[in-house]
User: Fold these one by one.
Assistant:
Number 1:
Amino acid sequence: MLSRSTYREMNYQLPLRWYISLCFFSLLLMTGVPISYALTPSSSTPLPAVWQCQQLTAVAGNLYSLRVQLEARAQEQDPLAEFCLSLVPDPRNSLAPFQWLEQSAKHGLPEAQLLMGTAYETGMWTDPNPQQALDWFTRAARQDFGLAQFELAAIHFEGRLGVQPNLPESLFWATLADEHQIPEAQELRASLERALKPGQKQMVRRRLQEWYSRISRS
């Protein structure tokens, strides 16, 4: 098993990526900073959809044109357009950013699902709901979205959101996240592989083979 000192050190390090991401999106949604100013080329974010929103912003030229174009696409239930609208302040409705984020998540965008999980875990923009948070994180991870897979690995490692610590479950998700080259996942995966018994690792390998088989058929 992992030593108490190792567990305590990793327990603080694992959520760091999400605290940074959460602060970034909190500033956008709570201060009403337009996406055209907030998402400059020097901005650093692990979410690919944010980069796509930045490209749409550059093409639109101004915030009004951007909103008009995005709302037209959102009428067709375009999850990326809905996600981008969640980053654009709307003076007509202060709740609009979260509503658009929720719509994007329901329509399957994994980045939106990831942020919905973060919102429900932290109670930001909505009441805390651990079960809802776990559900949204899991939806994103099952789409083979590496950042959500790492988040699930951290949840099962730490025992957050009402689940008991489960190291084999953590290794399963950490392995998938590591294959998406999430840096923190590599460290967690290595530590868990050292800690688990051979039978536990064999069980994880079987689950991984089932996962790869399912992904190859999709």
Number 2:
Amino acid sequence: MSKLLILAGLVLVVGLIAQSARAASPAAGQDYTVQLDDQLTRLADKFYGEPAAAPIIIDATNARATENDRYQPIAGPAEITPGQTLFIPALTSAQVLARLAPAGPTPQQQALLASLPVKGTPPELFNEVWLNSPPLKLADLHGKVVLLEFWTFGCYNCKNVIPSLREWHQNYADDGLVIIGVHTPEFGYERELDNVKEALVRLDVQYPVAIDNDWQTWQAYKAPFNQRYWPSKYFIDKAGNVRHIHIGEGDYARQEEIIKALLAENM
């Protein structure tokens, strides 16, 4: 009888030690209570060694929140509060990398990409004055999908195109889309920087705009791509190649499909 009591006592002690260890250092595969200075990227780095794995914690916690009210849905990496319960799924490093790897284009996107042959390499941007952004270089944007548009704020057709560009900027910037408006003026009043600044506010242009008052960029694109019109859009893939050119208004649904396909393309 005494041996059984001793054995039971040992089991209880081991269990308490294990429970204490888990409480001191939460392991992957269990709940975690958010502390005062916690950020999801830091937690992802802590548990997985990869800050970019924060969406894994978000998805896992949100999935639990649909079934259990002890979990609160997370809308984004910044929206966690002290005391909130997160769920940290048990994943190996290989599993984390697999989840973070791009899924790749769908069969429909593969067919669309096959219809977009390389049209050439776009000339570099050397504009010195930029609005909404510091100066950008296309060479620094490899790995991103770039939509470069020649426009001017007095152009009626250009103004009609802006809502679609704004929507794409809002929806896909976090996925790797960079929209650049090259503002090449047609008339004298469009050369005035204050007028351009006012137009960006009035038209709600949120993406980077390069000021091309000397037509340097326009002329650079004229030889290889016959640049002649406002608006003209150049869709540049992650490797830095022009894959599609669209002139004028319209065909927005197909252009959005092209953007999504280029973003899904593995390069």
Number 3:
Amino acid sequence: MSPPRVSQGLSRHDGYSLLEVMVAATLLAMVLGGVLPLLTGGQNTYEAQTADTSMRQGARVARDKMTRETRLAGYRIDNLPQAFMSASSTSIQFAADIDDGDPLPPCNASFENAVNGGAERLTYSVSGTDLVRSVDCWNGSTWTNVISNEVLVPDLVTGLPVFRFFNANGTEMTGPLSSAERDAIRSVAIQLNLEDTSYTHIGDQDHATFQITTQVEIHNLQ
């Protein structure tokens, strides 16, 4: 009896050799090595754009709030001697009835209904890299703090002026202003210089910086 014949239809190899596996792994590593930096770079770019957009929007909201409140400086404070209580390049404090007598917070009915009460005292100041806001309520004789160092704008570029002050002639008054100079304030320029430090950049990329400005006219002072 002749021995059984091996089928010629079987392939020469039933699997891959170690050399073939190593070559394939090397090629795969080379492809991934080229693709992963692109994916990482794209993710970082997306995160950077998202962070920048969020910061810009937040800064605009804060600027609009400061504009509304600062414009009211001196409004309905007949019982107080002065609207602007301090003014420098990094801080400003003024009195105004910003809620127009509304007994809702921040100043409740005990302040609003007191004899000669109802005014608020607003303070904006630079604290480190933050611009913060504080609110005090007037009951006709004393101030009571109700909001302390609320962060309005984070990530300010330090060392740059935020506030500038001008009299009725448009002349800028610099330095910490005296009492007479504060009485002469008729407009306030607000300049927010910001730097986005919320994410890590690749290589030598710089953090994004930008500036938001506004000019506030004061209409309640004579």
Number 4:
Amino acid sequence: MLSQKAFAQEFKLLASAAEVKQFPKETTREIAFAGRSNCGKSSIINALLNNKSCSRTSSSPGRTQTINFFAVGKGLEQRVLVDFPGYGYAKAPLAIISEWQSLVLRYCKERKALTLLCLVIDARRGLTLQDRGFIKKIGKLRYNLLAMITKIDCLSRSHRDGVAKQIQSELDKITTAKATSCLEVSARKRWGIPEARDALMTLSASENATAKLLTIEKNQAQKELSHD
């Protein structure tokens, strides 16, 4: 399938941004990954890109300390995966953590190229207070939300049943996304990775994305002309 081919291609790190002015230009649809520190977010991104070191993984929470932008695929199949610092516990000063949070929230509220937000949730913990707080801070979502339930292999079969349904039910009560869906995955076992790639491509293909990007390109062109 086209989505599998897109993710099989070599990815490119576009930027590691610690402030808004370091964000790359908005040239294609963006898929952002958010999650509680140590929820398995980095491992999932690495699995999606079939690379062991794209996103830094560690037993110590808080290793991702910038917003990282990765381009994958080409042409109409191109997407930019955006890796957020984890929220919740992290070995970093409170002032630095506050800066991360402000930058992430600003991205979520202002970035026009964002068409899909992936909320990575540890299956063993379910939807946490930190997850709820993050969703509440963002407010009304103008894009799709995908709950990516990871570490599903850590649960027994009997405990797996109903996890996605429960999280879906909870999210429906607290989110205002265009559409909300759930997907179970395991980076270690590679369960659900092909399905996750298909879901990312489909859910990020917002009907309004083309119009948004044309507006972005027009505004960028006008800015460049005004500086000449």
